[in-house]
Amino acid sequence: MSGQNVNVRLLALETLLEAERGDRQSHLLIRDVLDKYEWLPERDRAFFMRLCEGTLEYRLQLDYVIDRFSNVPSGKQKPVIREILRMGVYQLLYMDAVPDAAAVNESVRLAGKKGFASLRGFVNGVLRAVSRGREQIRWPEPPGSPENLSVRFSVPVWLVSRWVSEYGAEQAESICASFQERRPVTVRVRGEIPPEEADRLLPAPWPEEARVLTDPRMLSSMKAFRNGALAVQDISSMAAVRAAGIRPGDRVLDICAAPGGKSVFAADLAGPEGSVTARDLTDAKCAMLEENRQRCALANLQIEKADAVLFRPEDAGRFDVVLADLPCSGYGVIGRKPDIRYHASEEKERALVQLQRQILVNAARYVRPGGTLLYSTCTFHREENEEQVRWICKALPEETGIRLRPDDLRPYLPDPLAEMSPAESGYLQLLPGIHPCDGFFMARMVREQTAFDG
After folding, report:
1. Torsion of the alpha carbons at 406, 259, 21 and 80, rounded to the nearest 10
2. Are 379 and 311 in a shared domain?
């Protein structure tokens, strides 16, 4: 498996080792490698992607298998050797096109190439034992327990235990299983599609303007994408923008906007007589927003670099609609970003809750009396979702004199979603594996007129 003397397995190993360090998300690392080696044959590119993504997705399960056949626990192995074994076990268990001998021998060679010639025998012994004994591998008992689901679907047991407690064992299993499925890439149609490209787009569950790409790899070469007739956006995100109730002429703020799907949709809804201000924290994120603005030819979309934590007094009460799609734990998109699960912790969750509250207070202050705050996340962690809505509606009057009230989402949602949203709650929680989209939360709140507003 090589192209122009590139060892694709070695390339995968280096990518996985960098992903393990956690400095960058794995899907970005994989994308960058494929961009750098764009001349690789398609077969090698596909092998690289499958090996990297599969080894990441099944990491906890692979460690469990390694521990069944190794006299040195995976947690005590040298990081390079552990990653080589993970890759080897993944090939043995899940890549039928790779002969067992090739999976074992190439793993042994990798150990030598990385300076661990003395451990080649260890790698060889473990992988040959897995090859001989894989039919005897048994997952933890009882079936459906948090320990069982954790190993089968490679999700930390503390997260599985929480989901079993909150949603029940059956739904928790469906959620975990969805992370191992291929996630479709959806786009929003906002212009005319050339006839020769129409067969690359399939209907999506909802909303009407959504389509599923038959082959996401073709997106950048499609005329419809290059000329702005297509905008990449998950259907859950499209529904959230619809739920904001944006009307022609509205002034909209997207407070944490990158990569820009919501901003583009908001600008389309606000129309030329309206305006959308899209902000984010870094130059790189603003560059993503600018790329979308230019490709979609949106004169009513303005990009600004800004820290959402810092309040801007000049924007108080300025906007008809504020979109607050905030940094979150991201559990709803683990199927797209598998390493989220491995870097999650309750400490990080608590820090995110506090960050969200800082930004939410500012976002609410930017909404004009009678205007709308649409809060959303791509997670299903209740402290970041329902509990944040309850908190902001209670704490905001005490801190600022501003009052928010939950508002019925149903008039703004596609029928299948409207049936799921209680009128009095003002929010909707979508779950991966239960609903045909990413895990996603949205809440619509209206700023009430008070004496504070004069």
Report:
1. 130
2. yes
